[in-house]
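BACKBONE GEOMETRY TOKENS
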Amino acid sequence: MAQITDKVREEVKEIIFEFFAEECETAVEDINDNTNIISDLDGDSLMFLELIEIFKKKYNLNIELKTIGKFAIKNPVKTIGELVKMQLLIIEHENNILNI
């Protein structure tokens, strides 16, 4: 678990924007919080899993994929902004994310 500071918030947003720009072959300037991951970027669930692994390593997170899956079913993510918020919750709460 990590404390969410402005620095962490900006790092997470930057990593997610750059990840999708590279994976979806689009300019990072064309991505914003309202960008739809599927319809605007042609993103998929495998990209989400890749991002989880990136953040698990970067923040030394101890969270199971099934926990993230259960949370995502109740809190579906469609936009980049929603993904940033979810990732911040995962970093902050790890396996306790289901209790918030």
